[in-house]
Records
---
Amino acid sequence: MDIRLDNLNKTIVNCKKCPRLVRFVHKISTQKRKQNMNEIYWGKPVPGFGNSNSKLAIIGLAPAAHGGTRTGRAFTGDKSGDFLFKCLHEVGISNYPYSINLNDNLKLKSTYITNILKCVPPEDKPLSNEISNCSNFFDEEILSLKKLKVIVTLGKVAFDNCIKLYKQKFSIKQKFSFKHGKSWSLPDGLIILSSYHPSPRNVNTKLISDKMMIDLFKKAKKLAKF
């Protein structure tokens, strides 16, 4: 990780711009789930992770309450992350088919994973000012990834908010519609590729399958040329 991205992540971890989210993260981290009662929760905003030379960025909406908020890494320690990393390993993006904690020696190939919102919101529903507060962090992450070619958004809410931030940035008039596997070209030359979220509900109802996710990341790798 380069100095710019390292400094940005330190700023993210120390951010307290959103009092509602600070309170909620503290509540989760002290009133733990029964199965995590003996663990020390991360309990802070969750920064992105991966290679600063990444050609691919994977974007979620926010850390999971007892996933990223507990472990300190996006898509780590919950069922969605388990499904995601199994698929990333299958296509050669992750060296392990799992992501457990910050000390598990996980490495990503030319990929950076982050969330638009760095703190988990109550009921997974962020307020517009909370997304706005975090948008500068997201912009800085994208700008710091100098070789970035493709952004994969996980879930319609992440897709909509990513597009919203780009529309504000470039005054885009074009209409974008969410569809799994669909790609769009952005004004700064990036390609956005939308995916269903790998949530247990989506997996259990077969809205998304291992094959669908694996095929999507094969496409992402091809578009990103790595």
---
Amino acid sequence: MKLDQLISKDSVVCNAAIGSKKRALEFLAELLAKESGSADSFEIFQHLTEREKLGSTCLGHGVAIPHARTSNNDKAVGAFIKLEHGIDFDSPDDRPTDLLFALMVPEHYTDEHLEILSGLASCFSDDGLRANLRAASNSQELYDTLTNWHVASRAS
């Protein structure tokens, strides 16, 4: 999985000053709407919120992968934010969440949805990647770190 197929430089934000789970989901929905070019941010927010009601998408280690399916998009798109300060995201390890990768896929993506989520979970289970993301000081560094992860991990 190549992350540059899911995100663009415009959908990666460094040091976002967001203080709540709800606001983080709203912000991610706005980024996903811009990235898709066709979906409505409020509708995406609703889908993300509904998914969170089923159970937190937080993986622990300060990482969450909120995701949703929608009928208003024909391809998978993602957005990533690094928060200025961690927030409560119902983490299984009770740690604040500061790295959030949101994913929106078309409704007909079933196997693809699970494959992408599995790839993202693998990506964010990498201690080195998380450390590099937290050390990034701007959005370009975040984007480069994310999009080069697959290439680096493949070589090993």
